[in-house]
Prior knowledge:
- The protein is α+β, with helices and mostly antiparallel strands and 385 residues long.
- It is built from ten helices and nine strands.
- A four-stranded antiparallel β-sheet has the order 2-3-7-6, with helices on one face.
- The longest helix is centred in the middle third of the chain and has 37 residues, at 233-269.
- It is globular and about 80 Å long.
- The relative contact order is 0.11.
- Mean pLDDT is 94; it is low at 1-5.
Amino acid sequence: MSENASSDDEQAFVDAVETWVEKELRPVARKFDLADEYPHEVVEQMKELGLFGATIGEAYGGLGLSAWTYARIVVKVASVWMAPSGIFNSHLIMASAIERNGTEAQKQDYLPRMARGEYRGSIGLTEPNAGSDLQAIRTVAKADGDDYVVNGSKTWITNSLHGHGTLLLVKTDPTAEPRHKGMSLLLADKGPGFNVVGKLKKMGYRAIDTCELTFENYRVPRAKLLGGVEGKGFVQTAGGLELGRINVASRGAGIAEGALKLALRYAQEREAFGKPIWQHQAVQLKLADMATQVEGAKLLIRQAATKYDRGERCDLEAAMAKLAGSEAGAACAQEAMRIFGGYSYSVEYDIERFYRDAMLMCIGEGTNEILRQVIAKQLVDRNRI
């Protein structure tokens, strides 16, 4: 539990988000998703709710919510429409990195504006040739007087079209060995040389501005180097991934829970062979497995978030939560499609959106294949003989 907010206050905020999700988000989700249109009015509502400052400390104008409360909020949003959770997730990972690693001047400059949603940020990590292997990035920042001059490209960057800047991972020393010692993070605001190439067309996760970026002699003041010391970027990024993985786990669990609720309702409404389909054993088995996966994922998320809130190392727990949550989302969405049968392929039913959105959770914030390796290595490290 966060020291900045009481249990009652945090529960009240969760309740307020749940009310907003049902009243405002559910009625518009299908429209924006099918049109692949950025939900500007939804973003304004999220600003009013305070979602952009959810985990930012109260000292900087945020709500100071615990990671567990934040995870519960994400589950609720994603159980209706996953995509909007990505808008404040990328933003809050950037804010968390600034709050944990930035200079006080950087915190005072960015965090109050971010908490209000006036400055909406993103995470500029992935490149066309570098996803899970971040040490392979090629974007270079060369010192030039009081600036860095950046050249390179990024891809799959959420919030980059309608946002205001990105936490940019660069090589400040491309020749460093080991490679991670030459990596740094820059607070990169939009300006000359910062080019948003275009919004990527995606199977799911629509309406959200996921774009390619190019940097052509883009100048960043050296005062925007996160923490003021070069070579810390890889470690700073790794720390932020714990919260990011808790978020993606929660998005996966939300998709799973939403798919289960849709399937439960439909299984009671739809009849086949003279009775509601939930009374058929094949459907009962699916519903039971789905519910078990949902609750198991949420327990792993709670474990990871609680350790994060206590300031304890939680890379193993966050990886397990992300693996379980994302796989639950994919499995439950698929099983719900089977329960809906032919109607699952109609865009008049929301379940097809859950199915399209689910697989991204198995890929984002580290593929589940990579995370299985992370989990195995951590298990051995913690249980040496």
